[in-house]
């Protein structure tokens, strides 16, 4: 009885819980507790059950000397091959292009396990006898977490599906080799971009998505408008019942004194440049990396309605060469890190690898992609900028922008790079819609 209550005197638990032992001594008496602990000191410590270590597939594949360690992997079945003596299952969890081969007794195969099923496999990681793989998992148990209807599943075993076909299933195409490889590259490139700017002394600025500015003046912008909840409910009801939405529900929006939620028209941002210029006036070197939006009614393989932009601004520079150098260094360093970190994923893709009236600007043009980067020196002369805004009738709207030139302005410049265009450039992806997880373009915003 005392063994069950107090455990082993030599057990490390008591060494780390002296406070608890003293508390028992106060409650039951020092002599009683001392006797109890002596009584149970000869009893062996119960052995704890070994809990298999959960590893990602990539972590398991990277093990050089497995030494039959107990592990557990979770992922999706990429292939099943059942023989008389042995069962082979390839499991992938998205961490690697390669799958981990599982070898097991055929009697362990769950009846509901099929291609696409999610599974959890426990066993011993052992050295593989095959030359093309270093390790394999000798399964002791296989559990199906989620079954998969193979007939209805759009991805088929050992069948090549084109990117055009996969585009019809944006919620499932990330399970394909091509898109999962691209998204791993995208993740690595994102980390490399942040690392580059941090290593070079830039501060990250979160520029707003909602803005009253159209910094590029293209006019191809999305207008943000508030919808009352009653109108949304009415609209959903009309869709489900094939009836017209209730008119008075929308009239609530017009009942207020000002039709705009922000009192002024607001748009989805087309660039963070203007906000970066504000911050460059305080932090010298700044960058942002986030979504931008263009209402460009184009179905071309080069355009998206929503895409990601890398933008930077630098103060105290007077030469376009300074901007060009940062653009070049960014491209080289990020590409080098991507190629070294994701060699197998990259293999899946075919690689293609001033005075007067002039503007001090530069564009980096790439075959098949078009403009990859665009940069310029910004106009820091107050009188020139004020005159230009007056001609456009925008002086009042951009008064805040003029004030930046009044209070300690510096010569400055910056550039922007389309992230999806960068991925097209280094990977040779034909259509930009296949360089982003959930593409948005005219007449297509599935969910």
TrEMBL record:
Its main location: mitochondrion. It comes from the Eukaryota. It holds the Pfam family tRNA-synt_2. It is found in: Mitochondrion. Keywords: Aminoacyl-tRNA synthetase, ATP-binding, Ligase, Mitochondrion, Nucleotide-binding, Protein biosynthesis, Transit peptide. The keyword Metal-binding does not apply. The keyword Nucleotidyltransferase does not apply. GO terms for molecular function: asparagine-tRNA ligase activity; ATP binding; nucleic acid binding. It catalyses: tRNA(Asn) + L-asparagine + ATP = L-asparaginyl-tRNA(Asn) + AMP + diphosphate + H(+). Its EC number is 6.1.1.22. InterPro entries: Aa-tRNA-synt_II, aa-tRNA-synth_II, aa-tRNA-synth_II/BPL/LPL, NA-bd_OB-fold, NA-bd_OB_tRNA. GO terms for cellular component: mitochondrion. Residues 183-437 form the Aminoacyl-transfer RNA synthetases class-II family profile domain. One of its GO terms (biological process) is asparaginyl-tRNA aminoacylation. Belongs to the class-II aminoacyl-tRNA synthetase family. This is asparagine--tRNA ligase. It comes from Varanus komodoensis. The lineage of its organism: Eukaryota, Metazoa, Chordata, Craniata, Vertebrata. The gene is NARS2.
């Amino acid at each position: 009885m005392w063994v069950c209550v107090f455990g082993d005197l030599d057990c490390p638990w008591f060494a780390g819980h002296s406070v608890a032992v003293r508390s028992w001594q106060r409650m039951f008496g020092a002599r009683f507790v001392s006797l109890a602990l002596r009584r149970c000191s000869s009893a062996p410590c119960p052995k704890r059950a070994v809990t298999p270590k959960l590893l990602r597939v990539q972590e398991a594949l990277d093990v050089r000397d497995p030494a039959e360690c107990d592990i557990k992997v979770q992922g999706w079945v990429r292939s099943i091959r059942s023989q008389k003596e042995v069962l082979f299952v390839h499991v992938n969890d998205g961490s690697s292009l390669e799958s981990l081969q599982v070898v097991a007794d055929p009697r362990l195969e769950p009846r509901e396990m099929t291609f696409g099923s999610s599974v959890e496999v426990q066993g011993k990681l052992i050295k593989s006898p095959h030359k093309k793989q270093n390790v394999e998992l000798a399964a002791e148990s296989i559990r199906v977490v989620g079954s998969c209807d193979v007939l209805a599943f759009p991805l088929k075993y050992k069948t090549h599906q084109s990117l055009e076909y996969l585009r019809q299933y944006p919620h499932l195409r990330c399970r394909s080799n091509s898109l999962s490889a691209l998204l791993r590259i995208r993740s690595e490139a994102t980390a490399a971009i942040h690392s580059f700017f941090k290593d070079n002394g830039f501060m990250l600025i979160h520029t707003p998505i909602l803005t009253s500015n159209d910094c590029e003046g293209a006019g191809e912008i999305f207008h943000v408008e508030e919808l009352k909840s009653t109108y949304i409910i009415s609209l959903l009801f009309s869709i489900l019942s094939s009836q017209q939405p209730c008119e008075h529900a929308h009239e609530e929006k017009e009942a207020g004194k000002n039709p705009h939620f922000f009192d002024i028209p607001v748009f989805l941002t087309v660039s963070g440049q203007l906000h970066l210029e504000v911050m460059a006036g305080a932090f010298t070197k700044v960058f942002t990396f986030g979504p931008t939006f263009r209402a460009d009614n184009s179905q071309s393989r080069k355009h998206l309605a929503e895409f990601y932009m890398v933008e930077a601004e630098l103060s105290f520079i007077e030469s376009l060469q300074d901007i060009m150098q940062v653009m070049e260094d960014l491209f080289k360093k990020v590409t080098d890190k991507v190629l070294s970190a994701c060699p197998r994923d990259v293999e899946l893709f075919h690689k293609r690898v001033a005075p007067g009236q002039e503007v001090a600007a530069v564009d980096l043009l790439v075959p098949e992609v078009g403009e990859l980067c665009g940069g310029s020196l910004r106009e820091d002369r107050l009188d020139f900028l004020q005159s230009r805004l007056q001609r456009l009738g925008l002086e009042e709207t951009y008064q805040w922008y003029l004030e930046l030139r009044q209070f300690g302005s510096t010569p400055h410049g910056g550039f922007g790079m389309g992230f999806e265009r960068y991925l097209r450039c280094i990977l040779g992806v034909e259509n930009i819609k296949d360089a982003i997880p959930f593409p948005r373009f005219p007449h297509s915003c599935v969910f």
